[in-house]
């Protein structure tokens, strides 16, 4: 029995953890100039160059801003839908329909955003038909724009349905309806019940998933690749762009960004899933 | 229910169905020039062209399906078996936090940092490499997913079988597997979707030789061939819709 368990842990280590460790170590060695085609021995030059250029910090802030806005808007929209239409969403038809958007992957969502939100897209055509705009140029820039509006809207499109389902499930599982009735019977008003009963329970039960979604969106690739602009770029796009460039001397800089991003994710995992939290959510 | 709620429900329903309808409409369209709201042509032309030509759409669908089924089977199978070792380990919390590292990292960044090893092992540009790359993401997910199953109750069931004279094999086949059936199905579905939806890692490890449907959609976006892109999107979206319909009862209810 013990040998089986040890073999299981070994298997998990080899296929679950070792590749992650190998990726991190290789990226770190490359960023320090220890390995690589044009390596010239240990050097912090690439780290200095990346830090001085400000692109790493800019990309981190840009990614965090888009991911944070995406998750926040998704949560607000999901709260409005799941609480506002709660009784209807429990109906078999609606509860099934709410699962449909989960079948849309990031690449298809990006494709749809181009089709619908671009200057020659469907909404632009409708706007022209309704007389809201006279020329193509008058339609706002939502794709490949500097504010990442297209990216944020696409994040909301793919994330909010999940939160609608999540909030509806938590509402039922945590018996919030019964708790609300109790609060009403004790003299609470509608607003008080929502802000002091419903919302705190929903948030405390789902905050870890919200953070997880923020981290997923932070590392999102295909949506910013299709809908983003040249600069600033989101982290994953920036890393891949740096690693795939023709100038071999600059490749270590891509690994610098990759190491920084990986370390941030590892720290986030430690903070979010530290011992106490894991035990509470078991 | 007041009128406002009816209106909100109507908007919600239309909003959900619109992307699916639009993709189907676009896939049958042609000559849809700006500023026309409706296409100039509507028919089977695009579908006939793509199915008769050497576009490789059928091959992409088969590649996606094969890779996803393999990743889901391997990820769920090994994840289920080896998650037990972690669940009953004295340092379970530490192992679990470690399992979150590869799961939370962007798959494309993981693949980029591992690309050297894929190249050296000759797996770059092969479907086996893509399967391995996606498995490295699906396996930790599966291990984390099954932690909820290996609880005190499951352990007691297992011990009861052993106490009554059953073997470990009998306990596993006749008690544990039937108990875990629902969760295995959900995990299989989830890991299938992880693989089915994956683009960055697949494009990087597959270097354009392994053309799954997501890779195909990206190629069509780059070519601005939106009619074929819509067909590829239909192939990508409708099978999961069918699976969602079949698995709805199990999905996400256990997450909270």
TrEMBL record, chain A:
GO terms for biological process: transmembrane transport. It is found in: Cell inner membrane; Cell membrane. The keyword Cell cycle does not apply. Keywords: Cell inner membrane, Cell membrane, Membrane, Transmembrane, Transmembrane helix, Transport. One of its GO terms (cellular component) is plasma membrane. Belongs to the binding-protein-dependent transport system permease family. PANTHER family: INNER MEMBRANE ABC TRANSPORTER PERMEASE PROTEIN YDCV (PTHR43357). This is ABC transporter permease subunit.
Automatic annotation (TrEMBL), chain B:
Belongs to the binding-protein-dependent transport system permease family. It comes from Algoriphagus lacus. It is a multi-pass membrane protein. This is ABC transporter permease subunit. Residues 57-247 form the ABC transmembrane type-1 domain. InterPro entries: MetI-like, MetI-like_sf. Pfam families: BPD_transp_1 (PF00528). GO terms for cellular component: plasma membrane. One of its GO terms (biological process) is transmembrane transport. Keywords: Cell inner membrane, Cell membrane, Membrane, Transmembrane, Transmembrane helix, Transport. It is found in: Cell inner membrane; Cell membrane. The keyword Lyase does not apply.
């Amino acid at each position: 029995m013990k040998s089986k368990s040890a073999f299981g842990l070994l298997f998990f280590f080899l296929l679950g953890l070792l590749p992650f460790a190998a990726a991190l170590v290789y990226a770190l060695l490359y960023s320090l100039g220890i390995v690589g085609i044009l390596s010239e021995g240990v050097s912090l030059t690439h780290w200095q160059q990346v830090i001085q250029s400000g692109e790493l910090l800019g990309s981190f802030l840009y990614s965090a801003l888009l991911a944070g806005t995406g998750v926040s808007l998704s949560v607000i929209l999901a709260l409005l839908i799941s609480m506002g239409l709660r009784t209807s969403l429990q109906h078999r038809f609606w509860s099934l329909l709410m699962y449909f958007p989960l079948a849309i992957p990031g690449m298809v969502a990006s494709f749809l955003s181009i089709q619908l939100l671009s200057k020659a897209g469907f909404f632009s055509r409708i706007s022209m038909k309704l007389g809201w705009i006279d020329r193509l140029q008058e339609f706002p820039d939502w794709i490949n724009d500097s504010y990442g509006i297209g990216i944020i809207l696409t994040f909301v499109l793919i994330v909010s349905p999940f939160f609608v389902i999540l909030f509806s499930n938590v509402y039922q599982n945590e018996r919030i309806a019964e708790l609300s009735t109790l609060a009403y019977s004790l003299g609470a008003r509608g607003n008080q019940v929502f802000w002091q009963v419903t919302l705190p329970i929903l948030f405390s039960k789902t905050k870890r998933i919200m953070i997880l979604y923020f981290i997923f969106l932070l590392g999102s690739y295909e949506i910013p690749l299709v809908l983003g602009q040249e600069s600033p770029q989101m982290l994953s796009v920036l890393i891949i762009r740096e690693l795939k460039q023709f100038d071999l001397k600059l490749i270590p800089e891509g690994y610098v960004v990759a190491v920084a991003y990986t370390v941030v994710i590892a720290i986030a995992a430690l903070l979010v899933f530290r011992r106490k939290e894991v035990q509470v959510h078991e | 229910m007041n009128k406002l709620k009816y209106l909100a429900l109507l908007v919600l329903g239309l909003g959900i169905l619109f992307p699916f309808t639009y993709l189907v409409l676009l896939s049958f369209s042609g000559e849809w020039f700006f500023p026309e709201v409706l296409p100039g042509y509507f028919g089977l032309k695009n579908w006939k062209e793509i199915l008769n030509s050497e576009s490789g759409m059928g091959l992409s669908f088969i590649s996606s399906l094969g890779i996803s089924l393999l990743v889901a089977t391997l990820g769920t199978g090994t994840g289920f078996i080896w998650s037990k070792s972690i669940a009953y380990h004295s340092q379970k919390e530490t192992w679990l936090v470690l399992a979150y590292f590869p799961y939370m990292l962007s798959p494309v960044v993981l693949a980029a940092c591992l690309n050297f090893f894929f190249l050296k092992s000759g797996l770059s540009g092969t479907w086996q490499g893509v399967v391995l790359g996606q498995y490295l993401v699906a396996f930790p997910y599966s291990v984390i997913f099954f932690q909820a199953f290996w609880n005190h109750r499951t352990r007691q069931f297992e011990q009861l079988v052993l106490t009554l004279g059953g073997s470990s094999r009998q306990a596993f086949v006749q008690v544990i597997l039937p108990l875990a059936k629902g969760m295995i199905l959900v995990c299989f579905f989830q890991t299938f979707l992880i693989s089915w939806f994956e683009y960055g890692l697949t494009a990087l490890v597959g270097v354009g030789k392994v053309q799954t449907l997501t890779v195909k959609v990206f190629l069509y976006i780059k070519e601005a061939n939106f009619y074929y892109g819509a067909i590829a999107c239909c192939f990508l979206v409708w099978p999961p819709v069918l699976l969602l319909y079949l698995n709805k009862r199990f999905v996400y209810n256990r997450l909270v």
